[in-house]
Amino acid sequence: MNRRFSVLRSYDPRTKLHILLMYFVLTLAAWNASAMVVSVLAAALIIYISRENLQTVISMSLVLLILNVILGVVCIIAMPIITGIYVAIKLLLFTFVYLLIMKGMKPGEMLDGLALGFGLRAKTAKVLMIILDFIPKVYREKKRGRKAQRARGISPDGGGSHIFSRIRQEALLAIPNIKYAYTRSKRQAEAMTRRQYHSTIRRSPVYELKLTAVDKIATIIFMLLMLATIILTLML
Hints:
Layout lengths: L12 H17 L3 H18 L3 H7 L1 H17 L2 H23 L3 H11 L4 H11 L1 H18 L11 H32 L18 H23 L1
């Protein structure tokens, strides 16, 4: 596979999961203005190299992002204002980065990345894959439902183009989408168990994984950003 630094989708699945983990540590460590700037720059870099349609990514979990905004407002009110603002920004940034990375990964890639990138047992990798892939499953269920509505001549936006109509429609569909995604996750776990996926500690990947120079450079860059955030938080 021809991999380029500017296309996150082409990265080795281990690299994508390592970037997600390092960004999680980075956002947890950022507790002052300088560290938060590094966190925002790291998120901007991920957005740049993801090459994903941002509107589609937001649509993946509009309700989740709205809940993050609500939680952020609560934190700003309940905590010291600076701390609350930091928490609100952290929630939004990490959720958006998570959605960007997960959109570019298939379940098989996640399994390989978790098992080979972190040395996890097959059963643990299976559970984490189902957890990480849950929000993308909700999006796929929503997308399937919207296609079914269009096929029946029903407007999936509830007949209105106003932003509040869109939010209302998303909220109404959130519960059934989550329910269907949960059912599919449960069936997926049962199918993997019946195929004895949990019985082997080490599994062969679906295809041969190979870290390229692009993967190594990307890992080093995000490791440096993570270390810079920790240092800035401790020193300032």
